[in-house]
Amino acid sequence: MNLDSLPLVSVLLPSYNHEAYIEEAIMSVVNQTYKNIELIVIDDGSTDSSPEILKKLQQRYGFIYIQRENKGLIKTLQELKSLASGKYISLFSSDDKYALDKLTILVGFLEKNQEYVMVYSKIIIIDDNSNAVSKVNEDYKSGEIFHYLLKGDFFLNGLAALIRNEVYEQFDYNLKSYVDDLYMWLQVAFKNKIGFVDEYLGCYRKHNNHLSKNLLKMQESEEKIISQYKSYVHYDEAINEWNLRWFHNTSLCHKSVAIKKYLLRVLKLKNIFRLKLYKALIRLLIPCLLQK
Questions:
Q1: I want to staple 10 with a disulfide (CB 3.0 to 4.6 A). Which of 33, 86, 113, 229 is the partner?
Q2: Would you place residue 203 in the very low, low, confident or very high pLDDT band (cuts 50, 70, 90)?
Q3: Four-CA torsion 88, 91, 97, 100, nearest 10 degrees
Q4: 149-196, pLDDT tens digit by residue?
């Protein structure tokens, strides 16, 4: 197929202190089977050797590269968004990588299915050495998926997504949000159809230190995002599912938060037969140090 006949895809890559992985990430874009790609990389004030690695790669492959002082992820994403000129947008992270046919498959889907503004696929979890650890399989949906996302029935990873720029350019990142993906996907899915491709097209790197010291900050952000939909007809159902999840997440190593903030929220008649509730209650009795 003639290159000129392929719609341009803008791959947006914020880079920060991932010297061990950034070249692998870049090469997974450079080596895509899909060839009409605009790769835009902003290094957000890395203090390791990432800028030097990126400069050499940019000289070799000619992508757009900006190196500047640290401004934070959300401001970096906003800047990347302003630079994108493709018909489609593909988001990325400097420690992850794409399957080599990701863009070929997802562009093909959106070109054939004009009713969808976005499409996503499944992901593989990889370790620090890029070995596959597990495949993520959830009860993914296609079409009008807002209700499922609001309940947290499954999680959509931007690494494995492709979105039409005409929709993406209307989105404004919340500078106060700690969970940018959830904030975006709920807004997109609220009025639009989103497609799903049943293939593994992204590799998400899970580091040994990913078990979140930032858990409470993340949950606070999630709660603010979900609360924006209080007028939605199924909000009570959705917030109950999130409260159960937040209670479970804090019940092991943030016990005071679990008890003071979430316990009364989940002790409801509707949850009396929910296994999630009893698992979290048991975790309250287990000392944090017993769990790795």
A1: 86
A2: very high
A3: -10
A4: 999 999 999 999 999 999 999 988 876 666 668 999 999 999 999 999
Q: Tokens 């296994």 — which residue?
A: 275
Contact 154/138 with Cβ under 8 angstroms?
yes
Do β-strands 97-98 and 193-205 pair in parallel, antiparallel, or remain unpaired? antiparallel
Extended strands (E) in 86-150: 88-91, 97-98, 116-126, 132-135
Residue 15: strand, helix, or coil? strand
CA 142 to chain CA centroid, Å, is 17
Looking at domain 3-205, its CATH architecture is Alpha-Beta Complex (3.90)
C-alpha R_g of the chain: 20
What are the residue ranges spanned by the domains of the chain?
Answer: 3-205, 215-290
Which tens digits make up the pLDDT trace of 71-97? 999 899 999 999 999 999 999 999 999
- What is the token pair recorded at 110? 């959106």
- For residue 73, the SS3 value is helix
- Taking residue 275's Cβ as centre, other Cβ atoms within 10 Å add up to 9
Q: How far, in Å, CA of 281 to CA of 208, rounded?
A: 26
> Residue 210: its pLDDT value, please?
47
Return d(Cα 203, Cα 191) in angstroms, integer: 29
Give the position of tokens 């709660």.
223
Distance CA 148, CA 154 (A): 7
CB atoms within 10 A of CB 66: 16
User: What HEC string does 225-265 produce?
Assistant: HHHCCCCCCCHHHHHHHHHHHHHHHHCCCCHHHHHHHHHHH
| C-beta separation of 55 from 27 below 8 A | no
